[in-house]
Specification:
Blueprint lengths: L9 E3 L13 H14 L3 E4 L11 H15 L4 E5 L5 H14 L3 E4 L9 H13 L5 E6 L1 H4 L5 H7 L5 E6 L5 H10 L4 E4 L5 H6 L4 E4 L6 H12 L3 H18 L6 H13 L18 H19 L3
Parallel strand pairs: 1-8, 2-3, 3-4, 4-5, 5-6, 6-7, 7-8
Helix pairs in contact: 1-2, 2-3, 3-4, 9-10, 10-12, 11-12
Length: 308
Protein backbone atom coordinates (compact mmCIF):
# COMPACT_ATOMS: atom_id res chain seq x y z
CA UNK A 1 0.00 0.00 0.00
CA UNK A 2 1.24 3.46 -0.89
CA UNK A 3 2.12 5.64 2.07
CA UNK A 4 -0.26 8.20 0.57
CA UNK A 5 -3.27 5.88 0.56
CA UNK A 6 -4.08 6.88 4.12
CA UNK A 7 -5.03 10.32 2.80
CA UNK A 8 -7.42 9.12 0.09
CA UNK A 9 -11.01 9.40 1.22
CA UNK A 10 -13.47 11.55 3.15
CA UNK A 11 -11.88 13.63 5.92
CA UNK A 12 -14.19 15.91 7.94
CA UNK A 13 -12.81 19.21 9.14
CA UNK A 14 -13.13 18.90 12.91
CA UNK A 15 -15.34 21.38 14.80
CA UNK A 16 -14.07 23.17 17.88
CA UNK A 17 -15.84 21.78 20.96
CA UNK A 18 -16.60 24.12 23.86
CA UNK A 19 -18.24 23.71 27.23
CA UNK A 20 -21.24 25.81 28.27
CA UNK A 21 -18.87 28.58 29.40
CA UNK A 22 -17.09 28.80 26.07
CA UNK A 23 -13.90 27.00 27.10
CA UNK A 24 -12.43 24.20 24.99
CA UNK A 25 -13.91 20.97 26.34
CA UNK A 26 -11.69 17.90 26.49
CA UNK A 27 -14.70 15.64 27.10
CA UNK A 28 -16.75 17.00 24.22
CA UNK A 29 -13.74 16.91 21.91
CA UNK A 30 -13.23 13.23 22.68
CA UNK A 31 -16.93 12.44 22.29
CA UNK A 32 -17.13 14.16 18.92
CA UNK A 33 -13.99 12.38 17.76
CA UNK A 34 -15.52 9.00 18.61
CA UNK A 35 -18.77 10.02 16.90
CA UNK A 36 -16.90 10.62 13.63
CA UNK A 37 -14.85 7.44 13.98
CA UNK A 38 -18.11 5.52 14.27
CA UNK A 39 -19.33 7.08 11.01
CA UNK A 40 -16.52 5.43 9.06
CA UNK A 41 -14.62 8.47 7.80
CA UNK A 42 -11.02 8.21 6.63
CA UNK A 43 -9.54 10.84 8.90
CA UNK A 44 -9.91 14.22 10.56
CA UNK A 45 -8.56 17.66 9.70
CA UNK A 46 -8.04 19.36 13.05
CA UNK A 47 -7.51 23.04 13.77
CA UNK A 48 -8.51 24.52 10.45
CA UNK A 49 -11.25 26.97 9.50
CA UNK A 50 -13.94 24.68 10.89
CA UNK A 51 -11.96 24.49 14.11
CA UNK A 52 -12.20 28.29 14.43
CA UNK A 53 -8.40 28.37 14.54
CA UNK A 54 -8.05 32.02 13.66
CA UNK A 55 -9.83 32.96 16.91
CA UNK A 56 -8.20 30.41 19.22
CA UNK A 57 -5.08 30.68 21.33
CA UNK A 58 -2.12 28.37 20.83
CA UNK A 59 -3.03 26.60 24.07
CA UNK A 60 -6.64 26.04 23.00
CA UNK A 61 -5.47 24.51 19.74
CA UNK A 62 -3.09 22.21 21.61
CA UNK A 63 -5.86 21.04 23.96
CA UNK A 64 -8.11 20.23 21.01
CA UNK A 65 -5.47 18.21 19.15
CA UNK A 66 -4.35 16.37 22.28
CA UNK A 67 -7.87 15.15 22.95
CA UNK A 68 -8.54 14.21 19.34
CA UNK A 69 -5.36 12.16 19.30
CA UNK A 70 -6.19 10.50 22.62
CA UNK A 71 -9.16 8.88 20.87
CA UNK A 72 -8.21 8.71 17.18
CA UNK A 73 -4.49 7.86 17.10
CA UNK A 74 -4.01 4.67 15.13
CA UNK A 75 -7.67 4.66 14.06
CA UNK A 76 -7.89 7.60 11.65
CA UNK A 77 -5.56 9.70 9.54
CA UNK A 78 -5.02 12.97 11.38
CA UNK A 79 -3.96 16.17 9.66
CA UNK A 80 -3.32 19.06 12.07
CA UNK A 81 -3.59 22.58 10.74
CA UNK A 82 -0.95 24.58 12.61
CA UNK A 83 -0.73 27.95 10.89
CA UNK A 84 -0.84 31.17 12.91
CA UNK A 85 0.08 34.68 11.84
CA UNK A 86 3.21 34.30 13.94
CA UNK A 87 5.83 31.97 12.47
CA UNK A 88 7.05 31.12 15.98
CA UNK A 89 3.55 30.12 17.14
CA UNK A 90 3.08 28.05 13.99
CA UNK A 91 6.36 26.24 14.60
CA UNK A 92 5.37 25.59 18.21
CA UNK A 93 2.10 24.01 17.08
CA UNK A 94 3.93 21.99 14.39
CA UNK A 95 6.38 20.54 16.90
CA UNK A 96 3.52 19.80 19.28
CA UNK A 97 1.56 18.03 16.54
CA UNK A 98 4.56 15.88 15.62
CA UNK A 99 5.09 14.97 19.28
CA UNK A 100 1.52 13.61 19.34
CA UNK A 101 2.09 11.46 16.27
CA UNK A 102 -0.17 13.12 13.69
CA UNK A 103 0.10 11.93 10.09
CA UNK A 104 0.53 15.40 8.61
CA UNK A 105 0.52 19.06 9.43
CA UNK A 106 -1.01 21.73 7.21
CA UNK A 107 -0.86 25.49 6.91
CA UNK A 108 -2.52 28.37 5.13
CA UNK A 109 -0.24 31.17 3.93
CA UNK A 110 0.27 34.17 6.22
CA UNK A 111 -2.76 36.46 6.11
CA UNK A 112 -3.29 40.25 6.15
CA UNK A 113 -0.02 41.44 4.57
CA UNK A 114 0.36 40.43 0.93
CA UNK A 115 3.72 38.69 1.00
CA UNK A 116 5.81 37.71 -2.03
CA UNK A 117 6.09 34.04 -2.91
CA UNK A 118 9.57 33.69 -1.47
CA UNK A 119 8.36 34.93 1.94
CA UNK A 120 5.38 32.55 1.89
CA UNK A 121 7.68 29.66 0.98
CA UNK A 122 10.01 30.57 3.83
CA UNK A 123 7.08 30.65 6.24
CA UNK A 124 5.91 27.18 5.19
CA UNK A 125 9.43 25.75 5.22
CA UNK A 126 10.05 27.18 8.68
CA UNK A 127 6.88 25.51 9.93
CA UNK A 128 7.83 22.23 8.29
CA UNK A 129 11.30 22.36 9.85
CA UNK A 130 9.70 22.23 13.30
CA UNK A 131 8.12 18.86 12.40
CA UNK A 132 10.92 17.22 10.38
CA UNK A 133 9.41 13.72 10.46
CA UNK A 134 5.88 14.69 9.49
CA UNK A 135 4.17 15.15 6.11
CA UNK A 136 3.20 18.70 5.15
CA UNK A 137 0.01 19.77 3.32
CA UNK A 138 -0.40 23.24 1.83
CA UNK A 139 -3.83 24.74 2.49
CA UNK A 140 -4.98 26.87 -0.46
CA UNK A 141 -8.01 28.99 0.45
CA UNK A 142 -7.54 32.29 -1.38
CA UNK A 143 -11.04 33.63 -0.71
CA UNK A 144 -10.20 33.80 3.01
CA UNK A 145 -6.40 33.97 3.14
CA UNK A 146 -6.20 36.69 0.51
CA UNK A 147 -3.49 34.95 -1.49
CA UNK A 148 -3.75 32.10 -3.98
CA UNK A 149 -1.31 29.24 -4.37
CA UNK A 150 0.27 29.42 -7.81
CA UNK A 151 1.69 26.45 -9.64
CA UNK A 152 5.13 28.06 -9.53
CA UNK A 153 4.97 28.45 -5.74
CA UNK A 154 3.73 24.88 -5.41
CA UNK A 155 6.66 23.63 -7.48
CA UNK A 156 9.01 25.62 -5.27
CA UNK A 157 7.45 23.99 -2.18
CA UNK A 158 7.85 20.53 -3.71
CA UNK A 159 11.59 20.94 -3.20
CA UNK A 160 10.75 20.28 0.45
CA UNK A 161 10.52 16.46 0.63
CA UNK A 162 7.91 16.63 3.38
CA UNK A 163 5.39 18.42 1.15
CA UNK A 164 2.93 15.78 -0.03
CA UNK A 165 0.08 17.82 -1.47
CA UNK A 166 -2.56 20.51 -1.34
CA UNK A 167 -5.88 20.98 0.40
CA UNK A 168 -7.42 22.98 -2.39
CA UNK A 169 -10.33 25.16 -1.27
CA UNK A 170 -10.25 27.57 -4.19
CA UNK A 171 -13.47 27.60 -6.18
CA UNK A 172 -12.13 26.85 -9.71
CA UNK A 173 -12.10 23.08 -10.17
CA UNK A 174 -9.41 23.66 -12.78
CA UNK A 175 -6.97 24.32 -9.93
CA UNK A 176 -7.23 20.66 -8.90
CA UNK A 177 -6.11 19.60 -12.37
CA UNK A 178 -3.21 22.05 -12.33
CA UNK A 179 -1.95 20.89 -8.93
CA UNK A 180 -2.39 17.22 -9.94
CA UNK A 181 -0.35 17.89 -13.07
CA UNK A 182 2.35 19.65 -11.07
CA UNK A 183 2.59 17.05 -8.31
CA UNK A 184 1.99 13.86 -10.23
CA UNK A 185 1.29 10.50 -8.63
CA UNK A 186 3.50 11.21 -5.63
CA UNK A 187 1.34 14.07 -4.38
CA UNK A 188 -2.19 14.28 -2.97
CA UNK A 189 -4.79 16.92 -3.83
CA UNK A 190 -7.86 17.26 -1.63
CA UNK A 191 -11.08 18.86 -2.81
CA UNK A 192 -11.96 21.66 -0.39
CA UNK A 193 -15.30 23.26 -1.40
CA UNK A 194 -18.01 20.91 -0.14
CA UNK A 195 -20.45 22.18 -2.76
CA UNK A 196 -18.35 20.68 -5.57
CA UNK A 197 -17.05 17.39 -4.23
CA UNK A 198 -18.40 15.53 -7.27
CA UNK A 199 -16.62 17.94 -9.60
CA UNK A 200 -13.39 17.79 -7.64
CA UNK A 201 -13.32 14.00 -7.58
CA UNK A 202 -14.17 13.87 -11.28
CA UNK A 203 -11.23 16.19 -11.97
CA UNK A 204 -8.88 13.89 -10.09
CA UNK A 205 -8.94 14.90 -6.42
CA UNK A 206 -7.73 12.05 -4.21
CA UNK A 207 -10.30 12.79 -1.51
CA UNK A 208 -12.11 15.57 0.22
CA UNK A 209 -11.68 17.66 3.34
CA UNK A 210 -14.81 19.59 4.15
CA UNK A 211 -16.42 21.83 6.74
CA UNK A 212 -19.92 20.38 6.43
CA UNK A 213 -18.76 16.76 6.39
CA UNK A 214 -19.04 16.55 10.19
CA UNK A 215 -22.76 17.28 10.27
CA UNK A 216 -23.63 14.76 7.53
CA UNK A 217 -20.65 12.46 6.91
CA UNK A 218 -22.89 9.74 5.51
CA UNK A 219 -23.78 12.03 2.61
CA UNK A 220 -20.20 12.70 1.52
CA UNK A 221 -19.20 9.07 1.98
CA UNK A 222 -22.06 8.21 -0.38
CA UNK A 223 -20.97 10.80 -2.94
CA UNK A 224 -17.42 9.45 -2.92
CA UNK A 225 -18.68 5.88 -3.29
CA UNK A 226 -20.93 6.77 -6.23
CA UNK A 227 -18.15 8.64 -8.03
CA UNK A 228 -15.82 5.67 -7.52
CA UNK A 229 -18.49 3.48 -9.13
CA UNK A 230 -18.80 5.97 -12.01
CA UNK A 231 -22.45 6.59 -11.10
CA UNK A 232 -22.14 10.26 -11.83
CA UNK A 233 -25.82 11.10 -12.25
CA UNK A 234 -26.64 9.62 -8.85
CA UNK A 235 -23.65 11.34 -7.28
CA UNK A 236 -24.73 14.66 -8.77
CA UNK A 237 -28.24 14.23 -7.39
CA UNK A 238 -26.91 13.72 -3.84
CA UNK A 239 -24.51 16.64 -4.29
CA UNK A 240 -27.35 18.96 -5.30
CA UNK A 241 -29.36 17.99 -2.23
CA UNK A 242 -26.35 18.47 0.04
CA UNK A 243 -25.76 21.90 -1.50
CA UNK A 244 -29.35 22.94 -0.81
CA UNK A 245 -28.81 22.02 2.85
CA UNK A 246 -25.62 24.08 2.97
CA UNK A 247 -27.37 27.09 1.45
CA UNK A 248 -30.20 26.78 3.99
CA UNK A 249 -27.80 26.46 6.94
CA UNK A 250 -26.15 29.73 5.86
CA UNK A 251 -29.36 31.76 6.24
CA UNK A 252 -29.38 32.10 10.04
CA UNK A 253 -28.21 34.93 12.28
CA UNK A 254 -25.83 32.46 13.93
CA UNK A 255 -22.65 31.32 12.24
CA UNK A 256 -22.73 28.17 10.09
CA UNK A 257 -20.66 26.24 12.61
CA UNK A 258 -23.10 27.11 15.39
CA UNK A 259 -25.90 25.74 13.21
CA UNK A 260 -24.09 22.48 12.47
CA UNK A 261 -23.09 21.88 16.08
CA UNK A 262 -26.70 22.36 17.13
CA UNK A 263 -27.92 19.94 14.47
CA UNK A 264 -25.42 17.31 15.65
CA UNK A 265 -26.71 17.76 19.19
CA UNK A 266 -30.34 17.41 18.08
CA UNK A 267 -29.65 14.37 15.90
CA UNK A 268 -27.26 12.44 18.13
CA UNK A 269 -26.99 13.99 21.57
CA UNK A 270 -23.29 14.69 20.97
CA UNK A 271 -22.59 18.18 22.29
CA UNK A 272 -20.02 20.49 20.73
CA UNK A 273 -21.14 23.75 22.32
CA UNK A 274 -21.46 27.04 20.47
CA UNK A 275 -18.84 29.12 18.61
CA UNK A 276 -16.08 31.45 19.72
CA UNK A 277 -16.54 35.21 19.45
CA UNK A 278 -16.50 37.13 17.20
CA UNK A 279 -18.40 34.35 15.40
CA UNK A 280 -22.13 34.80 16.05
CA UNK A 281 -23.99 32.32 18.24
CA UNK A 282 -27.50 31.12 17.45
CA UNK A 283 -30.48 33.16 18.55
CA UNK A 284 -33.99 31.77 19.25
CA UNK A 285 -35.24 33.02 15.89
CA UNK A 286 -32.74 30.68 14.19
CA UNK A 287 -34.30 27.52 15.55
CA UNK A 288 -37.00 27.02 12.87
CA UNK A 289 -34.26 27.07 10.21
CA UNK A 290 -32.08 24.75 12.30
CA UNK A 291 -34.99 22.31 12.65
CA UNK A 292 -35.73 22.53 8.93
CA UNK A 293 -32.10 21.76 8.10
CA UNK A 294 -32.06 18.91 10.56
CA UNK A 295 -35.04 17.39 8.74
CA UNK A 296 -33.39 17.86 5.37
CA UNK A 297 -30.28 16.08 6.66
CA UNK A 298 -32.35 13.24 8.13
CA UNK A 299 -34.11 12.75 4.81
CA UNK A 300 -30.92 12.84 2.75
CA UNK A 301 -29.09 10.42 5.04
CA UNK A 302 -32.07 8.06 4.82
CA UNK A 303 -31.88 8.30 1.05
CA UNK A 304 -28.16 7.59 1.08
CA UNK A 305 -28.79 4.50 3.20
CA UNK A 306 -30.80 2.98 0.33
CA UNK A 307 -27.96 3.35 -2.15
CA UNK A 308 -25.87 0.22 -2.67
Amino acid sequence: MSSLDKYRGIIPAFYACYDDNGKVSAERTRNFTQYLIDKGVKGLYVGGSSGECIYQTVEERKITLENVMAVAKGKLTIIAHVACNSTADSMELAAHAESLGVDAIAAIPPIYFRLPDHAIAQYWNDISSAAPNTDFVIYNIPQLAGVALSVSLYKEMMKNPRVIGVKNSSMPVQDIQMFKDAGGDNHIVFNGPDEQLVSGLAMGADGGIGGTYGVMPEVYLTIAKLVSQNKMAEAREIQYEADRIIYAMCTTHGNLYAVMKKIISLRSGVECGSVKKPLAALIPEDMPIVEKCRGMIDDLIAKCATIK
